[in-house]
Specification:
With 311 residues, the protein is α/β, with parallel strands linked by helices. It is 35% helix and 18% strand. The chain has a 9-stranded parallel beta sheet, sandwiched between helices.
Length: 311
């Protein structure tokens, strides 16, 4: 679908009054490389995973939350519109998003994908894999801010299978699967999922290990992981945040990771020079009291975009 019209408060002309809504332009015909926003309006993976549906409306809510934010970086911003999954054909939708991401990368843009359920992860990977080149020798690391491993073994792809799908694709191409997760909840992942994470060589910190008092330990973990790979795919599942901060998700967190810790991780990866793609998943506007989840997600997107150092 074509990008929507961005609107919001206008305080006057000039960069000193700039807000997101005044900077975003359509991706089609963009000449100068910049950030390309692409929506993935899907909750089919959440439905298959027996979660609370509604994340298909996430991209629109994220745009509305981003629109009024003051913008302190003049780098070009573009909107490529949405890939929608309305017919239950998740697999086709994932391929379509992959093509959109790869196309944006071919134009020199940094892709930011607005989900959608966390089935967006495999779709983002398809685009990133194509955009980086099928014969790439550069190492790719997946860093997941999430309460869940999303390494489920299921008959069909769901919002909980994405990273197992990525692992299998990477290994089928003879590559190491480099996966790290921050915010894993021991009560939200079975022993079988912890075993699978160990089998795949996944690195992780639990939510108990990610308190604000342990911030430097968390950032040391993140810095070590990003330094060990050439390119980083950073994915933020909003259910990593506490339920009172992010109520509008399919599976609210009982404990979660404080927003200041999540923000510091996003900023650290963005400043590393290795961030190749960022996506945000699981925003469910129908459950989002006062738009709290959308607003904190918009802040994370703003920090990733304005703090990113290109490789």
């Amino acid at each position: 679908m074509d990008p929507p019209q961005w609107t919001g408060r206008d305080d006057g002309p000039g960069p000193e009054h700039l807000r997101w809504h005044g900077a975003v332009r359509p991706l089609a015909g963009a000449a100068e490389p910049g950030t390309a926003l692409i929506g993935f309006a899907s909750d089919e993976g959440v439905r298959r995973n027996k979660g609370r549906t509604g994340a298909a409306e996430g991209p629109g809510a994220l745009r509305r939350a981003l629109a009024p934010l003051a913008l302190h970086s003049p780098a070009p911003l573009y909107d490529g519109g949405d890939v929608r999954v309305d017919d239950g054909d998740l697999e086709a939708g994932q391929r379509a998003l992959g093509e959109a991401v790869a196309g944006a990368m071919a134009g020199g843009h940094f892709p930011v994908v607005l989900g959608g359920g966390h089935e967006v992860a495999y779709a983002s990977y398809l685009g990133l894999d194509s955009g980086l080149g099928p014969d790439r020798e550069r190492t790719l690391g997946v860093l997941n801010l999430d309460a869940h491993f999303d390494l489920r073994e299921e008959p069909v792809p769901t919002s909980g299978t994405g990273f197992l799908q990525i692992a299998r694709d990477e290994r089928a191409r003879g590559r190491d699967f480099r996966y790290a997760a921050v915010g894993i909840s021991r009560t939200a992942n079975t022993g079988a999922l912890f075993d699978r994470a160990a089998e795949l060589g996944a690195e992780y910190l639990t939510d108990d290990e990610c308190s604000p008092l342990a911030l430097e330990k968390v950032l040391d973990f993140v810095r070590a992981f990003t330094a060990s790979v050439d390119d980083v795919y950073l994915t933020l599942d909003l259910d990593v945040l506490p339920a009172w901060v992010a109520p509008g998700v399919s599976a609210p967190a009982a404990l979660g990771v404080a927003p200041e810790v999540v923000q510091a991780v996003v900023e650290t990866v963005a400043a590393s020079g290795r961030l190749a793609l960022f996506d945000v998943a699981e925003l469910n506007p129908s459950l989002d009291a006062d738009g709290r989840t959308a607003r904190v997600a918009a802040r994370m997107i703003d920090r990733a975009v304005t703090g990113r150092c290109p490789a």
